[in-house]
Batch of 2 targets.
Target 1
Amino acid sequence: MLSLIADSSSEWIKIGIFQDDKKLFAIEKEGMALENFFNLLAKVCDGASVKIAKIDEFIFCEGTGSVLGIRCASVSFFTFAYLSNAKIYSYNIFDIARNVCTKQNILNCQKQMTKINAKNSFENAGLNKFFSVKGW
């Protein structure tokens, strides 16, 4: 199964294509989603030698974060899925954070989460190790 996963909800856009559990190609770039999302999407497809029409499932981050970035991914993925009968899924980064914060590390996560405010991103709060495309 071919999966295309994208997170364009922050100032870092992350897109990857996977064949089952194996990463075929992934890329991340700092920048605005409107200016970069579609170019990065094309680079990922080229890098993995995969046509959009062959994707079996599209997965995107639905937030929290940049509404414009989320819309770039969601609208394009819903359109591609509709035209190809692929499945579409979304996830919320706070749901992932909640699942990562087990009883063993909940105090550490709470300390990290208190560092997050309007001026800080997950990366600045030290949570990027859980959400980064690096290590996919």
Note: Helices lie at 33-48, 67-84, 93-100, 106-114, 128-131.
Target 2
Amino acid sequence: MATYRKTHRVRHDGGAQSLISIALDASGDPVIPTSATHTILDLRVPETGTDREIVASTASTVDSASTTLSAAAGAGTSDRRLLSAVDASGFSEDHKYLLTDATTGRRKLVDVAWISSNSIYLRQPLVDGFASGSALAGIEVTSTFPAAEAADDDSLDDGGGPYALDLVWVGVDPPNQREIVFVERTPENLYAVTLDQCEMLSPSLRKKLVNHDNAAEQFLDQAHSDWRAELAALGLNPSDYYGAENHREYIKARWAMHGHRYLPGGEGDFNDRLADSFERRARVLLNTFMAGGNNPHGTVVVDPDEDDADDGTSLQKGRLFGLS
């Protein structure tokens, strides 16, 4: 099996979006390719499927920014975050560049925090020293995920991926690199469950809430907040688990719990008993979620014979997380 990390998140219905990659050599060190092309495949579709190829081989863009240092940087200087450039035009904040020492040839991938004139400030201080005249050059390679695929509701409902971003480098050994892409809803607080879906769990409650201003919506909002709070307390990123089956069922149970617990003009003990019942259901669902069966997006394991993967990410916790 070939294992890949998910490295790109594409926003659903966000238009055409950039996928930024960095070429790595056989030792795992960052290198600047002479040029690059990319193909995007839907790994949920078999190799023989007509809908597998989302983007046919097309050119990617290699960042062409280039300058040299007008002064030494790093160890031995007063500000180890500062790169004094001969010309900082063409460089941008919040992007990565390759710094190559003029004396030793040592390379360092650096992340730019901000730029003032020809002074480039890094997010992290340099540990080693870099001589005046050292080269600073663009290394990021930009490909594009198409707007139509990002807006495909059926694809999103089918797990949002995985897609393969297959890159071909010129001037890099090895010349091929695969990265994984998923389409996701954002921001994380978008509703995973609608009121209509909640009504299926407790039709009578929705009817009782009709005449109370926005009560049903407020309870649904609180149920989503409950989910995010539970996962955050466990040290988990709620957006990584968006739309899992237990997630949706938990939201519905918490909605019904809040509704029966705080229903204006409710029926006393009977409503309390219903609320307790739904609260227990929500707790069971959360415990089941933690026991396994719902994984964050992260690693995709692709069958090398078929070069495909199931939708989403669904293997149990405790096993190699991914798809096989």
Note: The chain has seven helices and 17 strands.
